[in-house]
């Protein structure tokens, strides 16, 4: 099977498919991953890679708020996260519990075994949902 | 090699970002913005770091919407009874993209986009500094006492420094 390409508003194949459409408008790809980021909190706060992120605000130990370039439709999207750290047992938490997520930003939080904020060496999050 | 931005007005913003990710090199700026929220007096200073893919878009030009579009979306979201955004096409996708910015202009745009308006709008008239643009090298070298970071009260925007208050 040939590899497909994403060209602006259309997802298309290179044409080795018969009997079906060779392209689809990306509007049909609803509710997929619209935002993702991989960043580091520990040592030097660094954004490694991302899509649809304008900045990350470092709010304290373990706390980061990535801000979206293309807003989501509202704050009711799904966030998947993971975090790791070298020195302690760190797990990922989202700010959804305190209402910090909005169409323009989501909260990522790394916590240690005592439920205290702790910097993660890698913090990754992705959002699935609809865009504004 | 100079890459020419396609005519993007009317193209979905997310598709523009996909184009940028495929065609532009990331730009890692040394600048960051340190700020304190007067509505959270006990919180440590926050530090906003620009995303390198976003910075590439800002310097390239012709991709990002005007910052006023984000203010309008924020207004909509803060309206009682808000359910979902309906003005995305008008504000983000069909508005004329902004031209290329310098790194300094991009930081100013980012402040107005990503930092709450009540922090930056009258920060020059506050009785203590609550926002400072600085370089990463001016931040404390260790994060051991991260939750005690405060902006040095003696600091002004041309003399940036942080005080690490344990």
How is this structure best described in words?
The complex is a heterodimer of chains A (132) and B (166). With 132 residues, chain A is mostly beta strands. Chain A has two domains: 1-30, no CATH class; 32-128. Chain A is built from no helices and eleven strands. In chain A, the strands form three sheets. In chain A, strands 5-4-11-8 form a four-stranded antiparallel beta sheet, with no helix packed on it. A four-stranded antiparallel beta sheet of chain A has the order 6-7-10-9, with no helix packed on it. In chain A, strand 1 and strand 2 form a beta hairpin. The two termini of chain A are 34 Å apart. Chain B has 166 residues and is α+β, with helices and mostly antiparallel strands. Chain B has one domain (13-164). Helix content of chain B is 33%, strand content 13%. Chain B is built from six helices and five strands; from the N terminus they run αββαααααβββ. Chain B has helices at residues 13-23, 52-60, 67-78, 88-93, 103-114, 117-120, and strands at 31-35, 46-50, 131-135, 149-151, 162-164. Chain B has a three-stranded antiparallel beta sheet. In chain B, strands 4-5 form a two-stranded antiparallel sheet. Chain A binds chain B through residues 6, 8-9, 26-27, 34, 37, 41-45, 47, 49-61, 67, 69-71, 73-74, 102-105, 117, 119, 131-132, and chain B through 11-15, 17-19, 21, 43-44, 46-54, 57, 64, 70, 73-74, 77, 82-85, 87-88, 92, 110, 113-115, 136, 143, 146-147.
Keywords, separated by commas or semicolons:
heterodimer, A: 132 residues, four-stranded antiparallel sheet, 11 strands, B: 166 residues, alpha+beta, two-stranded antiparallel ribbon, 6 helices, 5 strands
């Amino acid at each position: 099977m040939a590899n497909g390409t994403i060209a602006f508003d259309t997802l298309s194949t290179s044409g080795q498919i018969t009997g079906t459409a060779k392209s689809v408008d990306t509007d049909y790809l609803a509710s997929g991953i619209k935002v993702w980021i991989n960043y580091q909190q520990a040592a030097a706060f660094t954004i490694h890679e991302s899509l649809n992120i304008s900045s990350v605000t470092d709010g304290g130990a373990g706390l980061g708020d990535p801000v979206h370039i293309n807003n989501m439709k509202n704050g009711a999207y799904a966030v998947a996260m993971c975090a790791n750290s070298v020195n302690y047992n760190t797990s990922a938490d989202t700010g959804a519990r305190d209402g910090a997520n909005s169409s323009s930003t989501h909260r990522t939080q790394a916590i240690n075994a005592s439920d205290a904020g702790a910097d993660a060496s890698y913090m990754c999050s992705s959002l699935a949902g609809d865009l504004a | 090699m100079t890459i020419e931005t396609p005519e993007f007005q009317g193209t979905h913003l997310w598709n523009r970002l996909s184009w940028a990710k495929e065609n532009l090199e990331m730009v890692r700026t040394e600048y960051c913005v340190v700020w304190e929220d007067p509505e959270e007096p006990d919180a440590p200073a926050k530090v906003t770091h620009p995303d390198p893919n976003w910075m590439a878009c800002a310097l390239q030009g012709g991709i990002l919407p005007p910052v006023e579009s984000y203010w309008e979306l924020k207004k909509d979201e803060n309206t009682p009874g808000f359910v979902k955004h309906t003005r995305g096409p008008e504000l983000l996708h069909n508005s004329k993209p902004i031209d290329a910015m310098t790194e300094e202009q991009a930081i100013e745009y980012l402040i107005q986009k990503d930092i709450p308006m009540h922090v930056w709008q009258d920060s020059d008239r506050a009785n203590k500094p609550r926002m400072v643009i600085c370089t990463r090298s001016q931040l404390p070298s260790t994060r051991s006492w991260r939750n005690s970071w405060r902006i040095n009260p003696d600091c002004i925007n041309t003399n940036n420094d942080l005080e690490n208050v344990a």
